[in-house]
Amino acid sequence: MTEISRKTPLKTSVRMDVDYCGRCTVCSSICPFDAITASAETSEVKLDIEKCQVCGVCSSACPASAIETIYYKDGPLLGYVEERMRKEGSDKLVLTCRGSGPSQKSIANALQKTGLGDFVPVILPCVGRVPPELLLKTLGIGVKNIIVMPCEDEHCRFKNGSMIGTRRLILVRATLNQLGFSPDTVTLLKHSIKAHIDSSRCIGCGNCSYTCPYDAINMGTPKVAELNLEACSGCGACAAVCPSLAIGLDGFEHDSISQTIRDYGALIRKVRMETNKPAILVLSCQWSEFSDFIQDSKGVPDNAELIELPCAGRVDDLHVLEAFHSGFDGVLIGACNKDECKLKKGNEKAAQRLESLKKLVAQVNLGERLHVCFVSPRNPEDLNDQIRLFTDKVKSILTKEAA
Q: Do residues 311 and 240 lie in contact, with contact meaning Cβ atoms separated by under 8 Å?
């Protein structure tokens, strides 16, 4: 699909202050993407922002606080936890990766055997970005139990992020044990979201098996889809192509996404009246942008509503059509940059599928109101710039149609 050209210069979300750097080279040794290099002669470190995936592991590991990422800073995060503790009346904190618990409901499902009860959820891009001192600070504000939920190591979206987070957690637990804290003060629970198949609804079309980038689905005998849970990485591509809606994904169920679209649809008239702009629905891969969870608005322009998905490959044609039916003037799909998909080219597959859908909706003059953009969280204004540019394009289309 054609890219909408950018009008504003890029800002970056990760910064390195060389004046603070102690040249210990911890950051270069721990970076999962080789985005930080250290000179063999001088130990001087350099950040290649184009390789950076904004996992935050380097920032949390830097002993000199020389690396800063704008997302999920300790101060605001602690303030958020305190506020939610008062609101929820709970002293239990759950820190989870987006890949292991994308919603409060999915976290509760994963924890149902623990008997945890009410809890304060904090959903991060990767728990590997959590420094040990942050865990200790949460205990200082009244948290009694911390459950850390990294992805399963083999399904970590940031290569070694889960492993790094696990190692840190083991050190924190050992320290707390020496200080006399209860063994259940900090608990580790590795978890990754998985697809699930309702075999009674499967029609044996084979779309899911053909689409799955992980070869996690096979067609059994009789011809019914069978899922290999160990291989499944929870991208949701299979659910997007299932014509009988037999495949679900915890936290990203078809019906819940549909309901959210309908709920947003009720606000469309208000959006148009208050902003004098077309109403835009954004279906975005949760790895292509890191919205500030502290802000209820998620930081998008006031004429747009954002729904996060596990991957752009989870974008369902039916949800796009439902958005138009609900009254949205345009639908923008936010996908990871072409070489940075966290889930095996889910972005490219989504673009290919939606190109076909675009031709279909073009028959009712909606083709130009559906667009795919490729963005990255390392450029914090990336998605919003694309929303504004797409808004201008849709507004121009509406003006011409009204003339």
A: no
Question: What is the spatial distance between Cα 190 and Cα 153, in angstroms, rounded to a whole number?
Answer: 8
CATH class of 195-249: alpha beta
Interatomic CA distance for residues 92 and 117, integer angstroms: 9
Sole residue written with tokens 């095996």: 344
Across the chain, what does the average pLDDT equal?
89
Q: Is the pTM of this model over 0.85?
A: yes
**Mind listing the pLDDT tens digit for each residue in 16-45?**
998 899 999 999 999 999 999 999 888 889
**CA–CA separation, 342 and 153 (whole Å):** 14
Domain ranges of the chain: 14-69, 74-188, 195-249, 254-402
What would the pLDDT profile of 301-330 be if each residue is shown by its tens digit? 999 999 999 999 999 999 999 999 999 999
Distance of alpha carbon 396 from alpha carbon 373, whole angstroms: 19
Question: Under CATH, what is the fold of the domain 74-188?
Answer: Rossmann fold (3.40.50)
Burial class (CB in 10 A: 0-12, 13-18, 19+), 350: buried
Domain 14-69: CATH architecture, name and number where available: 2-Layer Sandwich (3.30)
Q: pLDDT at position 2, please?
A: 40
